[in-house]
Write a structure and sequence with these properties.
With 254 residues, this protein is α/β, with parallel strands linked by helices. Helix content is 36%, strand content 8%.
Length: 254
C-alpha cells in the first residue's frame, strides 16, 4: 500500500506537507513511502509494523531526528546508505527486520559505524565505547543496496569483480590495516610510534589481548585518512575526554 498525500495530511492534521512535523503510521500495511520526499520538515516518523523495504525517500527528510522502523521488510543493511545524510537523526529503531541478520553484535556495530550520531538504537542508549568499537567491528556502507541476492541482512555485490569472493565486507580494509601500520602513519604525516612503545604491555596480558589492541590502533590510524576537519575535531574531543577519564581514574586509585 502506498502512503498518500491525503493520508499524511489527515493523520498529521496539517494543511500542507511542508507543515508536517510528526507522522505516525504504525501498522498501516505500507510498502511505498515515496511521499516522504515531500516532507522536508518532518522530525519524527513512526513506520513500525509495515512492509517497507526501501528507505531512499527518506533522504530528503533533513530535519528527521527520530525514525521508528521496527518490524518491516528491510532486507539489507545497505539501506543505511540513505540515512547517512540525515544530520539530525538521533533515534533509530530498526529491530525485527530481516537486515538484522543472525549476528546482533555485527548488526549493531555496523549501524553505529554508519550512523555515529545516534544516541539511541533499538531503544538502547548508545555509548562512546560502542562508537569506538564500531570503527573496528562494523562494516562501512558506501553504496546503496543491490536489491537482489539478499541473505542474512547483507546484499550481494552485482560487480563482476566481486564474483567468487568469500571475504566479508570490510575485511580488506582491516587486513591492510593490520599489515602496514608504519606505512599508514607515514601517509598520515605522523611520526612513527617506536616499536617498544607501540607494543608495550604488561606481562599479564595475553598474546590475544596484545594483538587485539594493535588491531584496533591500526584500524583507527587507517580510518583517520577518510575524515575531514569536522570529523578529526570530533575524534580529538572524544580522545581528550577518554584521556581525562583515565587520568581521573588513576588519581583515584593512587
Amino acid at each position: 500500500m502506498r502512503l498518500s498525500r491525503a493520508a499524511v495530511l489527515q493523520q498529521a492534521k496539517a494543511g500542507r506537507l511542508g507543515a508536517v512535523r510528526r507522522l505516525n503510521c504504525w501498522g498501516s500495511h505500507l510498502t511505498d513511502i515515496s511521499i516522504c520526499r515531500d516532507l522536508p520538515n518532518i522530525e519524527v516518523i513512526t513506520f513500525s509494523v509495515n512492509g517497507i523495504s526501501d528507505l531512499e525517500p527518506l533522504t530528503r527528510c533533513q530535519n528527521l531526528s527520530e525514525l521508528y522502523l521496527r518490524k518491516n521488510n528491510i532486507t539489507s543493511l545497505h539501506e543505511l546508505f540513505y540515512l547517512k545524510g540525515l544530520p539530525r537523526l538521533r533515534v533509530l529503531w530498526l529491530a525485527e527486520n530481516p537486515c538484522c541478520g543472525q549476528d546482533p553484535h555485527r548488526y549493531r556495530m555496523t549501524v553505529l559505524r554508519n550512523l555515529p550520531g545516534l544516541q539511541k538504537l533499538d531503544n538502547q542508549a548508545v555509548t562512546e565505547e560502542e562508537l569506538s568499537q564500531a570503527l573496528v567491528d562494523g562494516v562501512e556502507i558506501t553504496a546503496p543496496p543491490a536489491r537482489r541476492n539478499v541473505e542474512n541482512g547483507w546484499a550481494e555485490s552485482t560487480d563482476s569483480s566481486a564474483a567468487g569472493s568469500t571475504a566479508e565486507p570490510g575485511s580488506d580494509l582491516l587486513s591492510s590495516s593490520l599489515e602496514e601500520p608504519s606505512k599508514i602513519q607515514e601517509e598520515l604525516g605522523m611520526k612513527a610510534v617506536p616499536r617498544d612503545k607501540y607494543s608495550s604491555f604488561s606481562p599479564r596480558e595475553t598474546d590475544c589481548n596484545r594483538k587485539k589492541r594493535n588491531n584496533v590502533l591500526n584500524a583507527i590510524l587507517l580510518l583517520l585518512k577518510e575524515l575531514d576537519v569536522e570529523g578529526l575535531e570530533t575524534i580529538q574531543q572524544t580522545v581528550t575526554r577518554r584521556l581525562q577519564a583515565f587520568q581521573k581514574k588513576e588519581l583515584q586509585e593512587e
